[in-house]
Fold each of these.
Amino acid sequence: MSHCLARYRIFAIFLTMLFTINSAQADFAAGAQAYDAGDYTTAFTEWQVAAKSGDLAAMVAIADLYRRGTGRNPNAVKAFHWYQQAAKAGDAVAQMNLGEMYLNGWGVRSNRPRAWVWFDRAASQGRSWARDQRMSLEKMMSSAQLATARKLRRIEKERN
C-alpha cells in the first residue's frame, strides 16, 4: 500500500510541475501578445506571473520594461533585480544586461570587476557581443581591477 502511495505522490508532483511549466509558458506568450499590441500593463502582469514561476525570459522582459520605462516609470533598481535573478539562473541575455548595468552604474553602483564577470559568463555561453564588451572593458581596467574580476570569476566557478 505504501509503495502505491509513494508512486501516486511522485505522479502528483510530476503533474504539478508539468502544469506549472505550461502555465508559465502560457503567461509569457500572453504577455508577448499584449506587448506586441501595445498593452504594456497586461504584458507586465502576465510576465510577472511567469517570472514568479521561474520563467527566465519573463524575468528579462520585466527587467526590460523597467529599464526602458515602457508602460511604467523607468526604475533601474527594479530592472537590476530582475536581470540579476535571470542572470544567476544562467540566462545569457540577462548576464549581458547585468554586465552593462554594473559597467554604467544603472540601478547599482558602478563596478568594473563585476561587469567583467557578467560579460565573461555570457561570453562563455557563446555570446560574441559579451566577449567584445569584456575585451573592451579589460582595456579600461587597472591591473588590480582585472585581477579582482578574474578572482571573482574563479571563485564563482569553484562554487558551481
Note: The mean pLDDT is 87.
Amino acid sequence: MLTVPLDASPANVATTAPRRYTTKQMGDACEMIVAAELTLAGIPALKVPDNWPGYDVIAQPLNSEPQRISVKSRTYKRGAAYVGYNDYDLFDWLAVVLLFVGEINSRQIYLIPRSVTDELARRDQPTSKTASERYFRVDQIDPLFRRYRANFTLEPLEIPA
C-alpha cells in the first residue's frame, strides 16, 4: 500500500513519496497521452490493444494512410539508460515520452519518423546476439530529436545535413 508522509504537500510529494504507479501503468498512460495529443492536434488516434505486435497507437491523418506509432516511455536520467526497438518491429513513427520526476514533474514527447530513427540509432555488431536492436541513450534524445518534440501533426522533417 502506498503511504504519503503527513507533511506531504504538492511541492514535496514527488520527492518524498514512492512512485505511485507500476511500469505497466506508466507505459499505458504514455500511450494514452500520445493518442490524446495527436487527436487534439487534429489527427484522430487510439491506443491499440496490449501486446499488439510492433506498435501501440494508430493514427489517421487526413487524406493519408493510417500511421503506426510505437511508444517508448522512460523516466529521465543521465548515463546508461536507453530507449530502444528492434529493426524488425513494424511501425512508422517512434514516440518517445521522457518523464522528469523530482521537484517539478514534467514530460517531453517526441514523435520521430522511423526513417530518421533508423539512420541515427546506435546498433551493435552484425554478428552479435543483439544485432537487431536499435537504441538511443535517454540523455541524448533531446539533442538528437529536438526538432521532433511535440510533433503531434506528424511532420516528417528532414534530417540535418
Note: The radius of gyration is 17 Å.
Amino acid sequence: MRTIKEDVIAQIVEKKSKFIANLCYVSSIEEAEAILKQIRKKHYDARHHCYAYRIEEKERILEKASDDGEPSGTAGPPMLNLLQKQELTNVIVIVTRYFGGILLGTGGLVRAYTQSAKTAIDNASIIQQEKRSRSKSSSILPKFREF
C-alpha cells in the first residue's frame, strides 16, 4: 500500500484565485472528517473546500470526493482520479479555493484543482506501507506448519 510519510501543503495561483492543497495521512473516515473540519475552520473565509480521500478499512478501499459547491465533477472527482492513478491510500487531499474575481470555467477549474493536488503529491514523500495482518494467529500458523 502506498501512502505519504508526512502531511504536505502546496499552493498555486490561477487567474488571481488561490488554491491551497493539504495532503494528509488518515487512517479512518472519522479522522478524514476531523481534518476537513480543521481546514474549514482555519480557512473560514474561503469560498470552497473540495476534497477526495482513499482509506483502506477492513481489506477494502473506501473513496469519496466532493466539489463543495463548484460545478459538478470539476474538483473532487479529478483529485480522486489522481489519488487512484498514484495508487495512494490512507490519504485525504483538501484543496481550499480563495476566489480571485475571475471565472475559470469548468476546464480551468479541473486543471487548477488537479494541479494543486498534483503539486502536493509531488512534494510528498511516498512510502510503501505493509498491510496489517488480520490477527496474530495468522502469522503464527505458517511457523507452526514447519514443525
Note: Residues 132-147 have pLDDT under 50 and may be disordered.
Amino acid sequence: MWSSGFKSTPKWDSGKSKANRKEDATGLPVVHEIQVRVRYADTDQMGLVHHARYFEWFEMGRTELMRALGLSYKAFEEAGYRLPVAEANAVYLRPALYDDLLTIRTTLAERPRPKLRLDYEVLRDGELLATGYTSHVFVNLNGRPVKPPRLFLDLLQQ
C-alpha cells in the first residue's frame, strides 16, 4: 500500500454498482479511478514527475480496478494465475508537479482474450496530462499462457 498520498475512489454509475459500465451483455467498458498525490520523491531535478512513475501509477490503477471488481490481485495469484506485462506505453502531454492531486483512470474496454489490454489517463483537475496502456498475458504459475480464467471473466458479467 502506498503512503497517504494514495486514495482509491471507484467511479460508479450510481454509487451502488461495482464498476462504471455500459449496460450491455459484455459488462464493458469497466472504468475505475484512483487518486495519488505527487510526492517530492516522485519528481526529478527539473521539478517534474519522473516518467517512470506513470507506470507505477498504471500498476496501482490496474490493481485497484481488479479489487473494485471483487478480486484482489493477491487472490488472483492464489487461484494460480498471473498477469505479466507484455507491452507498456505512455504519452506525456503535460507535466505533473510536486503536490499535485492526480486522478488515474483505468479502463478495460475489450473482452480479454489470451491478452488483456488496459488503457490509462492521468488527470489533474480534469486536465489530461498523460495517456497510456499496458497489455498483459494470462499465465499459470509455471509461466505458461492460458485462456482468461473463468473467475476473471465472471467478474465482468456482474
Note: DSSP finds three helices and eight strands in the chain.
